[in-house]
Amino acid sequence: MERFVVLILPAAAAVMALWTGRLPFKLAVAASCGIILMACVVRRPRLSGLQLWWVVAALAMSMVGDYFLSSRKGHAHFFEAGIAAFFAAHLGFLRYALAHGRISIGALAVMLLAFVPYFLLGLAPAIESRTLWTAVLVYLLVSCVGLAAALGLNQPRPVKWLYLAGIALIVFSDTLISFGEFLRYRRLNFLILPTYYAAHLAITASILARPELRGIFSRTTNDPAPAR
């Protein structure tokens, strides 16, 4: 369990971000999660086969998205830039999931049946900009694919369910953002950031839970055989 102690860092950053609302603490959540994963690869170089760099890249793009959305007041296109950054983050999470599993077609069908009508009947009429309309649709589609890929992850149960929880929390947080931005329903806005930060913690915990990372932060750690 000692490998999970490092999650105190992003958890503390999340608490400070929620308490103060300061941008540095917001960025520190994804940054500290990324640093933890980079430390894993540095300590055991043969773990490169696990494709952890895709998750690190996704966390980095999440930081970019956090910056744009947190700083968009007075900047006309920062919201669209934030969507683009989070889209890239979803691609990173998706690439990692596909390296260790496959897309669950059944789950993808259910997701599309739920979210495509939500977009067409709820969001689309409220979006005036054609560029933003397209960006939101593409983002919604990649979110559905990413969640279906998380459900198709071929890993031990703790690893799979933590990763699935992380991606599901991102989708949930994004859905709440769409409620507020386009439907003007903001009663659940207080859940957006807690679920978003919890998502990063869950995804990082999922990777730390992998058998290949057992003892990764112990004082004496041996580089295991190359990961399959």
Protein described:
The protein has 228 residues and is mostly helical. It has one domain (2-213). It is built from eight helices and no strands. It has helices at residues 8-20, 23-43, 52-70, 78-99, 105-123, 130-151, 157-182, 192-208. Helix 3 runs antiparallel to helix 4 (78-99). The longest helix is centred in the C-terminal third of the chain and has 26 residues, at 157-182. The radius of gyration is 18 Å and the shape is globular.
> Please, how many helices?
8
Mean pLDDT: 93
User: How many separate domains?
Assistant: 1
Going by helix content, strand content and strand pairing, the class is mainly alpha
Largest sheet: none
General form: globular
Radius of gyration: 18 Å
- Could you spell the SSE succession in H and E letters? HHHHHHHH
List segments where confidence is low: pLDDT < 50 over at least 5 consecutive residues.
Answer: none
Residue share in helix: 55-70%
Oligomer: single chain
Q: What distance separates the N and C termini?
A: 24 Å
Concise synopsis of the structure shown:
The chain is mainly α.
Topology (elements, then pairings):
Elements: H1 8-20, H2 23-43, H3 52-70, H4 78-99, H5 105-123, H6 130-151, H7 157-182, H8 192-208
Helix pairs in contact: 1-2, 1-8, 2-3, 2-8, 3-4, 4-6, 5-6, 6-7, 7-8
Write out key terms for the chains shown:
228 residues; 70% helix; 8 helices; mainly alpha; 0% strand
